[in-house]
Design a protein that fits this description.
about 550 residues; alpha/beta; six-stranded mixed β-sheet
Amino acid sequence: MKYRNVFFLLLAVVLIGCQRKQPIVILYENDVHCAVEGYARLAGLRDAEQSRTPYVAVVSCGDFAQGNTAGSLTQGEAIVRIMNAVGYDYLTIGNHEFDYTVPQMQHLSDMLTARTLCCNFSRYEDDDKDADKDDEDLFPAYAVHNYGGTKIGFIGVATPSTFRSSTPTYFVDDEGNLLYNFHQSDTYRCVQEAVDDAREDGAEIVVVLSHLGDDPEVAYSRGLIAATHGIDVVLDGHAHHVLNERLVNDRGDSVTLTSTGTKFAYIGRLTIDTENRITTELLPASECRRINQTVWDTVQAVQQELEARVNAPVGTTAFALADRDNNDNRQVRLQETNLGDLMADVARYTTGADIGVCNGGGLRAGLYNPTITYGNIVSIWPFNNTMRIVECTGQQLLDAFEVGVAALPRENGDFMQVSGLRYSVDTRIPTSVIWDENRMFAGVGSTRRITKMEVFVPTDDTRHLLPYQQQGCWQPVNPETTYTIGGQSYIIACSGASGMFAKMHLQAINGEPLNDVDAVCTYVRAMGGTINDAYRLPQGRITIK
């Protein structure tokens, strides 16, 4: 009996000696979108935290590979190079990681030293699209990491809206059959199963790396919390919000929801103390003064490698071509802008179509400096599209444009900036757009918000001129007439913009289609290198009431 007591006393001493004496710190970010200077500050903060505890992790909630030239000119590889210098531990994929095709997204994941986690992205293995058991998971749903005896479960989840917010044709075969599954209808179930599995594997605390955002029409972060249990913290991305709040799950337990905004507005710090109590803070990145020199050197090397191409001058402008108003409110997704007029004219001129279009969601920046560089244009159109043409009837045209105005007066990435077309919208009329299960365009019901639509018919002797130089007349769109529409491959050929042009006839193009950034350069050169004063203000192509 005496020896037994001594044994238990020694065991207790050992267990006490093994108890974690330092906190666990998880540094997190989301939607960096190639704001690469912030990575050195994140790594500097990591270094500072490691001076007080050995248990430090760095995680990302997605949308890191796209956003400016560093991403687009290297298809995300330069960003991965920088992230590897930081030393990330875990991440999940955002919708914009798919912008360079699914194979490139997988290549980026292979390049990363961090583990990619995602519980709701899989590939169909056979023709039975309803059998989840036949899906091949592309990434692990979760990982359990032991920090000094405390096991933390990390779970990744991507927004199902990726199917339409990236390039839809990337996810289908040549016959239009789905190849990949984002589990649009059962995302919450996928997460709950991952939570249960992580708990079964010993996770004492569960942290979800989420790229869901706040759109209630698909799986979203608040809906996830309300529909599940066993999650302690949701680190969220996609919506670019700054959040740090507590919500209640389906069992009445409190769950933290937090998000750092975008482009390193903040760096998040999640702290788990020695009693497993959780706190989260949002630290302004600009106030994180410590810089990791290795990461900073990597950032500088990447920027220098791209500098010559990015800074190559293309032309000049005497005025701003704006994507936002003076209060920094984005305008290109809800009304006509002079930038939208220019880019739609680029589409019409370089394709030779009757109508030029560009979706507001594809315009990612404006032109605000007198000198226009190649990098400026890449920042506006960073997705490496080509220019394509479809043929459609007037009726198809009328139906398609109802998609772009369905959300007004709220902004919508499907909102169309136009050239060679003008239309009027009455937002008091309820939208009757019909959507399929993937939130893709399926038709129009009995009411229409577009009350008037006209197409410009140039005279034969001015048809070859730049759009603002052409003479001609406006004619009502005829439902029986065939028109051609030119624009980026994302919306014209790849079912983007909710598939509004997906059922139209794609025209064959001799040779390689023109890259969209090169199309802008071509148009600026055609203007003599200076943006014409015709674009100083919006030209009255879209009327909204």
